[in-house]
Amino acid sequence: MDTTRHERPLGRSGIRVSPVLMGLWQAGREMWAGIDDAAVRRAIRAAVDAGITAFDTAEVYGKGHSERMLAAATADIRERVVYCTKVFANHLRRDPLIAACERSLKNLKTDRIDLYQIHWPSTSWSTPRVPIEETMAALGDLKAQGKIRAIGVSNFSRAQLEEALACGRVDSLQPPYSLFWRHVERDAAAFCREHEITILAYSPLAQGILAGRFGPEPRFAAGDHRAKNRLFRPEIYPHVQAALEELRPIAARRSVSLAQLALAWVIAQPGTCAIAGARNEAQVRENAAAMDVRLDAADLAALDRIGRRVTDRLDENPVPWEF
Questions:
Q1: Residue 122: helix, strand or coil by DSSP?
Q2: For position 217, what pLDDT does the model report?
Q3: What phi, psi does 151 have (nearest 5°)?
Q4: Which of 68, 135, 200, 256 is 20 to 30 A away from residue 169, measured at CA?
Q5: Which of 61, 116, 177, 237 is catalytic?
Q6: What is the pLDDT of residue 215?
Q7: Do 176 and 318 meet the contact criterion of CB atoms below 8 Å apart?
Q8: Taking the CA of residue 78 as centre, how many other CA atoms within 13 Å lie in the half-sphere pointing to its CB?
Q9: For 28-32, 185-189, 227-231, 264-268, which range has the lowest pLDDT when averaged over its residues?
Q10: Which segments of 26-124 are extended strands (E)?
Q11: Helical (H) or strand (E) element with 191
Q12: Segment 183-207, tens digit of pLDDT
């Protein structure tokens, strides 16, 4: 398959990525239910075959298990794929960060990480405060050594992104972003466009909600963190269901699934790619097909209006979960 017709620049890094990336949080198994390693590996290979060239993981996903699953599935085709991983907020001091990078390199069985991202800013999840200058200096040294090719940040506000950019080049911001979760539009999106920072939207399907996987009374297996998603709050969820009913006819008219419609909306936003998780080959092929969906101005306007049925009822908290 010719994937180059889809690929987009990642900031100013010179790296190119598919508009839809495969997210591998679930591949770590912790905080998820019913995940099978063999199925994950098959899904990763199916993603490559379907035109997805970039994969997003993190050291904290299953304590490196997700990174190891990516390596197991793609080590023999390393030159064809882009590895994106993240260092957690408890490893932002210079020495712990460099050690974390070395562990990720070992887990991924590679000599370089294409995009290395700060997963959460310091002080998140009760971690110590670390000056962004120290973290960015360590990342800059890793980049100079060729161990990482580009630097990104995740879950940063515009103000935090500006502070990081003042210390070195940042090529991506990874925020939660979907039709039903649009805080980044009010905060950092315009800044990213101005500075050629690619937005890598995580949870672009609102963890399956926008794929229509949950009915009026959702139930979750033990250990499934999605139960804590704030979109399931009783004062919000009825509006989610009403919005989904409005989206279904648009998807039907376009002959696409709800998931493909939602992903197509995200990647139609300026400078934005979508990180979509998948448990199996069928889901990843469905996600990849969204790269071929073209929405016209009328579609985009309708989707914008429908999405605001949900987002207008959310507060200013940018974190989607109540952990």
A1: coil
A2: 81
A3: -110, 135
A4: 68
A5: 61
A6: 83
A7: yes
A8: 12
A9: 28-32
A10: 54-56, 82-87, 113-118
A11: helix 189-194
A12: 999 999 999 999 999 999 999 999 8
61 noted as active-site residue: yes
Res. 29: pLDDT tops 90: no
List of domains in the chain: 10-215+259-294 (3.20.20.100)
Token output for 201 = 């939207």
- Cβ atoms of residues 214 and 239 within 8 Å: no
> What torsion, rounded to 10 degrees, do the Cα atoms 297, 185, 54, 84 define?
170
Q: What angle is formed at CA 171 by the lines to CA 167 and CA 174, rounded to 5 degrees?
A: 105
Q: What is the pLDDT of residue 3?
A: 54
One-letter identity of residue 213: R
> Which amino acid, residue 298?
A
Q: Which helix H or strand E contains 22, and what residues bound it?
A: strand 20-23
**Rounded Cα gap, residues 176 and 304, in angstroms:** 17
The answer to whether residue 118 scores a pLDDT higher than 60 is yes
pLDDT of residue 303 exceeding 90, the answer is yes
Q: Are 101 and 140 in contact (CB under 8 A)?
A: no
171/140 Cα distance (integer angstroms): 13
The first and second tokens of residue 252, run together, are 């039907």
